[in-house]
Amino acid sequence: MTIEKCINEFDVDDVIFEEGSTGRELFVVLDGKVEIAKMNGASKTVIVTLGKGEFFGEMAVIDGSSRSATAIAAAPHTRVMRINHARFVYLVSQQPAFALMIMDALSKRLRASNTVAFRTAGGS
């Protein structure tokens, strides 16, 4: 498969994937911006906005679970590269720096999530 077939372009408010959907792909932002959001009817709560070089969808590609949030293009001509499960496993096994980058990002995201959960639970 050529790299061009792994690149998709989206316009503002285009949904890349929806919370609850299945998918075994990780996405890397090549251009533009992507919002990761929780949807409640017509209401949208943006968790984070990602830009060039950042990635999303890693939990589904790692464990095969359903998507935990919705990914929405937030800029015109937002381009993302899809990395399927087989390519992800190959990259992790052959490129230790890639694996470390994924682990670092997951750790930071978990810490941020824990901080929010702690504050919500009434911690200081």
In terms of topology, how is this protein built?
Blueprint (H helix, E strand, L loop, with lengths): L6 E4 L4 E3 L7 E7 L2 E7 L2 E8 L4 E2 L1 H6 L6 E4 L4 E7 H10 L1 H25 L4
Antiparallel strand pairs: 1-8, 2-7, 3-6, 3-8, 4-5, 4-7
GO molecular function, one term: DNA-binding transcription factor activity
Protein name: Cyclic nucleotide-binding domain-containing protein
InterPro entries: cNMP-bd_CS (IPR018488), cNMP-bd_dom (IPR000595), cNMP-bd_dom_sf (IPR018490), Env_Response_Regulators (IPR050397), RmlC-like_jellyroll (IPR014710)
Walkthrough of the structure:
The protein is of the alpha+beta class. The protein has one domain (3-119): Sandwich (Jelly Rolls), CATH 2.60.120. The chain is 33% helix and 34% strand. It has 3 helices and 8 strands. It has a 4-stranded antiparallel sheet. It has a 4-stranded antiparallel sheet with strand order 2-7-4-5, with no helix packed on it. A hairpin with a 2-residue loop joins strand 4 (34-40) and strand 5 (43-50). It is globular. The termini are far apart. The model has no long low-confidence stretch (mean pLDDT 91).
CATH top level class name: Mainly Beta
Largest sheet: 4 strands, antiparallel
Number of strands: 8
Strand-pairing-aware structural class: alpha+beta
Order of helices and strands: EEEEEEHEEHH
Radius of gyration: 15 Å
CATH architecture: Sandwich
- Tell me the overall shape: globular
- Helical fraction equals 25-40%
Strand fraction:
25-35%
Question: Overall pLDDT, averaged?
Answer: 91
Task: Kindly identify the CATH topology.
Answer: Jelly Rolls
Helix tally equals 3
Protein name: Cyclic nucleotide-binding domain-containing protein
Domain Cyclic nucleotide-binding: 10-109
GO molecular function: DNA-binding transcription factor activity
Organism: Bradyrhizobium jicamae
